[in-house]
Amino acid sequence: MANLLGVAIFALAILISVSLHEAGHMLTAKAFGMKVTKYFVGFGPTVWSFKRGETEYGLKGIPLGGFCKIVGMTAQDDDVDPADEPRAMWRFPVWKRTIVMSAGSITHFALALIAIWVAAVSLGLPNPKFPTNDAEIRQEPAVISISDCVVPDSTPRACAPGDAASPAAQAQLRDGDRITSLNGKPINNYGEMLASLRALKPGETAQIGYVRDGQPGQTSTVLAQTQRPPIDDPKGAVGPVAALGVALTVTTPTRVTYGPVAAFGATGDFTRELAVGTVQALQRLPQKVPALWTAITGGERDVDTPISVVGASRLGGEAFANKAWLLFVTLFISLNFFIGVFNLLPLLPLDGGHIAIAWFERARSWLYARIGRADPGRVDYLKLMPFTYVVILIGGVFTLLTITADVVNPITLFPR
């Protein structure tokens, strides 16, 4: 039940985002004096509407987006009343049309930024200092968790009868202890602990200094043997090395909460990372089509494959049911940012396509004026329709693939 409620809440949040996207177009168009005749949430048959001034507002029967009708978006629009010609959108300066057409994406960016700031001061944002690679992990304090045994080979597996008991457990070390010395040699981080261990031999007795609950202690144990590659060459040949039977416990927090002022800087940093990730995701989209097809036809679903609104809503429902609030908010942030960037791509029928054409017309008129030729006028949108249909077809097929994959083989983050 909680999962379904989360799905509904997330889907409603997406619908509100898209509705605000269209409201951004409408409000900026009205502010510049363009005529907006319709603003509706949803598509299909009208469920309810009212008219205020020259604009009809309402709700459609299929709640999958929304739209607003701005008179004369292109010079080829043939449904413009002669009385409205001076207010047709295409007659306005290019900078005003750019603001109107980009207002939808700006709205998505604004929603994402607000949500990031709110998360920064309440839930916390991912800690940029959290270790993500071997070099960073080795700089962590040598805080340990005790293994049940020492697996004698290099392949990780569960403990089996005959495996050596953990030397650390035999030395009465505990989870959360921090190793401070090994045979008298000071240990400042996990990397130094590994290096000191590798300098010893299996079967050798190690004197261990540690700190527990702020109090120092000493113990000793006989080291076991396992197989590992060289520290400086993880892909090198494995060989016998001494083992203490411990694993690293990362003490750096995974997320950081900020004050209201510091949250602005954190929001900027997070947004930069999000922008880079979004661009990289867009670049990888063509490569992910085979993986989507594999997921649809019965293969394993790659968690790095794109998801549709359906998939995002399902993940939002899982996050809600498991009280993973940061994940819920992050999904909302990522989706809004992605839609904002995607909608600015210079392709029709996206807003970015209309913006690109407007500036192309402006640049072409400027160039023709400089070389003494007559202004060629407006771009004929009708000649661009074949390209537009191709974009719509590709987008439609990709959307169908992602929705199908999200229905028959969805990504799940919480095992059941």
Description:
This protein has 416 residues and is of the alpha+beta class. The chain has 2 domains: 1-35 and 71-128 and 257-408, no CATH class; 134-248, Pdz3 Domain (Roll). The protein has helices at residues 2-32, 94-121, 134-137, 167-170, 190-198, 262-296, 309-321, 325-342, 351-370, 385-408; strands spanning 36-52, 55-70, 125-126, 144-146, 149-150, 164-165, 178-182, 185-186, 205-212, 215-222, 224-228, 239-243, 246-248, 255-256. The protein has a 4-stranded antiparallel sheet with strand order 8-7-9-10. Strands 1-2 form a two-stranded antiparallel sheet. A two-stranded antiparallel sheet has the order 3-14. The chain is elongated, with a radius of gyration of 30 Å. It starts with a helix and ends in an 8-residue tail after the last helix. The model has no long low-confidence stretch (mean pLDDT 92).
Structural descriptors:
alpha+beta; two-stranded antiparallel ribbon; Pdz3 Domain; 2 domains; four-stranded antiparallel beta sheet; 416 residues
- Count of discrete domains: 2
How large a portion of the residues is in β-strands, by DSSP E? 15-25%
Integer-rounded radius of gyration: 30 Å
Strands, count: 14
What is the SS-derived class?
alpha+beta
Residue-averaged pLDDT: 92
Order of helices and strands: HEEHEHEEEHEEHEEEEEEHHHHH
